[in-house]
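Before a colleague's protein record goes any further, I have to sign it off. Thanks in advance; the entry in question is below:
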Amino acid sequence: MLTCRARFVVPLLSVLLVAPDGWAADPTDNPVATFYAGPEGYPAWTDSIHWSNVINMKTYTKGKTDYEKFEKARDEIAEQGGVLYYPAGTYDFTTIPAGRGLFLRKGVVIRGEAPAGRPVAADGKLDLPTKFVFAFRERGGGKVPRDWNVIGLMTEKEKRQTLREIDQIGIAWVHLVGATVAFGPQMDWGKTWATANSLASDSVKKAWKPRQPDGTHPFDPLAGGGKKYEGAGKRWLVFGGVLEDAAALDDFLDPGYGPDGFHTQRYWARIAVYGSRVLVANNLLPRSKKNFRYRQQTQAKTPDKAGSFVQFDYGKTVGIDVNKELLAVAGADAPCPGYFEEGSSSATTSSSTTGRKDTASPGPGSRSPGTSTTGSTSARTTTCTGWARPGW
């Protein structure tokens, strides 16, 4: 009997131990530590993210669309914190409803499949297996991103949570098409964009005047941000990403272009991260192939009825903004305006811009080694200490 049982059990075990073709275990390592495994070290705070708590989004079944699945999985994993893992493939986020973006809750990180080898963005190329595609719309004879194509933040209003209470969020190893990343600061928000008396409040178009700022829209600090910077979150990362055709459509301000005018918003960076202990590293911002010319009014006082030719240029924006541009309205009486704890970094990133600064960062607490740029740029970066591990 024993001999007979062994004869049948051994083949059965063989079947169970052979993994199906293409199957791989969900990654649970810290991708930042894995990438920066050499003597340069890595930010130790990234180990605090719950990398081992993973939901595989390719096999997740709650929801009909990729966006519905994202929201359900995000809310599910946010209780303990963890990773929404997107294995190799293209994910369709063109169905996101108006007024909503891909918003992360506290403790949630989006992670794509890591590429083969150790590709460095500063070399000008990143081939990533995981791609997120966002919607575009026709405008002026060309294609522009939709208003809310953004990876952003979400507060829990029932808990009266603010942006400065959000920590351990980010995105790693994902190729974004048509979307920006915006993890912004907490301001003393006005009631609406029209009444906040903020830097851009006087130029807000009619449709956007009633917007109630809360930090979920990347332009809230400049259109509805009041006068004081009240704080920002901690431990935020944007790592190993490609941001293709990532420009903000400014269809919410009228600087003299008329009610139907539009343009790229130069102060809405393709990657904007505000906080302490943040990492923006190894990201590629390639030159867009979607730039186009169109006619529109360009000045309010003496408008040209036929309009002038202008360029919708995806590269005419700040590439990376770490703790700087959106604090333009923060007054000197605010608590530590413009300053954050040490340990912020923007590193080994390649960005194509046109006549705009590629990176922007304030004084103490920021570091930007190894940044590579192309095009006509004016890059401003600063350095300091602050890593818990040596090398950076």
